[in-house]
Amino acid sequence: MATPITQADIDAVYPTVAETIADALGVDIEEVKPSASLIADLNAESIDFLDMVFRLERAFKVKIPRGKIVENARGALSEAEFEQKGIVTDVGMTQLKAYLAEVPAERFKMPLKVADIPRLFTPETFCKLVVQAQREAAAAS
Predict the structure, then answer these.
(1) Dihedral sign, CA of 65, 88, 121, 9?
(2) Cis before 104 (ω within 30)
(3) DSSP codes, 52-87
């Protein structure tokens, strides 16, 4: 079982993540709050996610595979258990809410299309991605 990511882990990377997101999106650092929706609150677009991940990889000297958030959120569930015809299942939703615990509950709308999962992402989601990547890099070295 993977070691849970703690608030201290998130706090350790948050300043750099927030600065990276602010730079990538051209917003003031004050607008980048841990629970802000990157899409709804900060006007990020899908192309911005690639830019942010690329910048975070450079800033932290880690590798973050594309689609990693959804893969991590799915956890041990098979694709069929997680989603049916592009819609997140009830089991998948429970898993997603647990993984994206930083996201306010009211943002999880049913039915949720897999394609809309990025609408849930926050700066804190990216902090968790960085911490996970750092752990994987440390384990591999």
Answers:
(1) negative
(2) no
(3) HHHHHHHHHT----TTHHHHHHHTT--HHHHEETTE
Eight-class DSSP state of 31: G
Name, in order, each residue with C-beta under 8 angstroms of 52's C-beta and a sequence gap of 6 or more. 20, 21, 24, 25, 38, 44, 126
Closest CA to 122 of 53, 34, 12: 34
Does the global pTM surpass 0.85?
Answer: yes
Per-residue pLDDT of the chain (141 residues; tens, 9 = 90+): 568 899 999 999 999 999 999 999 999 999 999 999 999 999 999 899 999 999 999 999 999 988 888 888 888 999 999 999 999 999 999 999 999 999 999 999 999 999 999 999 999 999 999 999 999 999 988
Q: Would you state the structure tokens that stand for residue 114, as one six-digit string? A: 């897999």
As a whole number of angstroms, the distance between CA 76 and CA 127 comes to: 21
Are residues 97 and 75 in contact, defined by beta-carbon separation less than 8 angstroms? no
